[in-house]
Amino acid sequence: MKRITSKLIAVMLVVCMIFPIVPIWAFAGSVSTASAADTVKFKLEKVSEDKDHVTVKLVLAEGKTLCFDAVVKTSEALKRWSIKYSSELNAFVAENTEGALASNKETGKLSFANSVELSAPFDIAEFTYLKEDKRGVVLSDFTLSVDSCYYKNGEGQDIQLGTTVINTIPATHTHVESGVWVETEHATCQHSGQRVMYCSECNEICTVEYTTQMDHTTKTVRVEPTCEKDGYISEVCTSCGQEISRTVLPKTGHKNTVAQHKDATCTEDGYDRVVCNDCNKIISETVIKSPGHKTVVDEKPATCTEDGYYIEKCTVCNEVIINDVLKAPGHKIVVDEKPATCTENGYYKETCSVCKAVLVDKILPATNHANTEVQHKDATCTEDGYDRIFCKDCNQIISETVLKAQGHKTVAEEKDATCTEDGYSREVCSVCKEILKNEIKPATGHQHKKTDTLAATCTEDGYIRETCLDCGNVVKETILKANGHKFVNDIKKATCTEDGYVRQQCTVCKTYSGISRVLKATGHAWGKWRVVKEPTYRSVGLRRSTCTNCGEHMDEEIPMIIVPVKKIVISPEEDFTIYCKKSDRLQANVYPEEAAYSAEIVWTSSNPNVLDVSEDGTITAKLRGTATVTASTADGSVPATRKVTVEYTFLQWIIIYILFGWIWYL
């Protein structure tokens, strides 16, 4: 019996983890109602917190229980990290083996079941979370819910306990000092310092203290007076640079002076002055003006081949003021030349136009017909030819051989006259093609002709044509101009729905010129509405309008008469039980009966995970539990409800045991 009990507990606990919506007590047998004294109290406490993590503890504070389902939900600022059972709970489970313990950190759910009661006070488990932001956690970050609490009374009955949950986490965060001071600003002789202490839980500043301002650290600075400026002795802070005190040392005045003299030169002024030996300042001064240079000039002009110079020098200080080199410009050349010919010498001469020097003078020898070519001309029928040597430089013939003319070689040529062209009889030289004799044969004219006629059409010209039968040429042609179309109107009237047209057709060739004008459809001229069928609360009505032009009609529904729903009764009329995975159909009876034809009934389930309901009232059992089915009007003003309980069949219980009972042995 103990083995069966432990296996059933394991099956119940595993199903609770897989189907969080099914409470562990859903698998219990007969359940008795708890008395006011049968209550149990759970408490959620904060164990520890730093800037990254927070750990809370689930405690059974009062009462005793054989089983329970606890869920800890958190705000989005916390991410589930781990669920750690207390050493006290681990020791209890190890000692009392007929039970099971499971948790799911993804959902924050912890389920406990055992054959031995768990009695308060008892630490159950610690839930650790990762903080998404660094603020301290508060009461609103956690929600604890506990249900499915049972224990057995003296008669062996399952007693469902009333549960009370207490969340001891403060509603507002209270800083916890870390005990470590952090200096944020050093104290100086100018201002006080500051140090802070951070909260060990949220890492925010929780305590601020100010440190005492430091004293000045001084040094003595001495600046000696000058002739014109006071000096001083001052006390200065070495940390902040602030001057604490100052004693003025009066200026001395110019007490140690000396006279200075400098003679003027050709380029610089001189002076007579009084200077202070202490500060080197000029007290008074008389300027002796510079007289300037007294210059003499020495120069030599440049020639064609030699440089010259220009020099200015001061006779007083011997300084050279100007020393310019006058560059030789070179010869300005004039060319005199005569080219050599085939029979006479030439010359080439270059002379400077400035210094008259002859720079180049040379003889150019005669070329003696050095550039000749051989020329040839064939003899013709009437002219002699030649072979000769010709000088291309002087254009003279050096030597020549004459080739005598041969005379014409004649042949006879004949061509007959045609209708339009003359013929001939001639003698022609076969060598040079010259016509030596020519007799004309006159053209015969068109002596044999025929006439062809093509009639003109609407779009193409015709003709009357005479053709020569001998040569095939057109002798005479008269064009017959195209007559053009003779159009008449082709008309189709427009109707209510179709366009008409007016177009033109030729009476001769029967072709169309295209649609020249569209006659738009006139549209229907609808008459007044006439009721064909009156509406009732069972069906819609009908009204009709007829076109006065074409007789076509259009129909329009008249909405049915709406009767308000006063009452809805769901059939079956009592709460009932249905097995898991089964379906059934609920019927919504509407009163008064006339309202049924127009009423829109909306079906809903209070727990779709347990019992689903479709639009037509068909219910489908999905999981063990209880759901309330509601049938109401679309606006929800007239509702009716039916409570449906979903149970497992004996076969389904066996399947659950086979699928999940083995987990107890892992």
What's the structural blueprint in terms of helices and strands?
Layout: H1 2-18, E1 31-32, E2 39-49, E3 53-62, E4 64-74, E5 78-85, H2 87-95, E6 99-104, E7 109-119, E8 122-131, E9 142-152, E10 158-160, E11 162-167, E12 177-185, E13 193-199, E14 205-211, E15 218-223, E16 231-237, E17 243-249, E18 257-262, E19 270-276, E20 282-288, E21 295-300, E22 308-314, E23 320-326, E24 333-338, E25 346-352, E26 358-364, E27 372-377, E28 385-391, E29 397-403, E30 410-415, E31 423-429, E32 435-441, E33 449-454, E34 462-468, E35 474-480, E36 487-492, E37 500-506, E38 512-519, E39 530-533, E40 541-546, E41 553-558, E42 567-571, E43 576-579, E44 583-585, E45 587-591, E46 601-605, E47 611-613, E48 618-621, E49 625-633, E50 639-647, H3 650-660
Parallel strand pairs: 1-10, 2-11, 43-50
Antiparallel strand pairs: 2-3, 3-8, 4-7, 4-9, 5-8, 6-7, 9-10, 12-13, 13-14, 15-16, 16-17, 18-19, 19-20, 21-22, 22-23, 24-25, 25-26, 27-28, 28-29, 30-31, 31-32, 33-34, 34-35, 36-37, 37-38, 39-40, 40-41, 42-45, 44-48, 46-49, 47-48, 49-50
Report strand order across the widest sheet.
Answer: 1-10-9-4-7-6
Q: How many DSSP helices?
A: 3
| Percent of sequence in beta strands | over 45%
CATH names the topology of the largest domain as Immunoglobulin-like
- Which residues form runs of ≥5 with pLDDT under 50? 1-36
**Biggest sheet details:** 6 strands, mixed
Number of spatially distinct domains: 11
Please give the alpha-carbon distance between the first and last residues.
20 Å
The helical percent reads under 10%
Tell me the name of the CATH class of the largest domain: Mainly Beta
Shape: flat
The total strand number stands at 50
Mean pLDDT: 83
CATH architecture of the largest domain: Sandwich
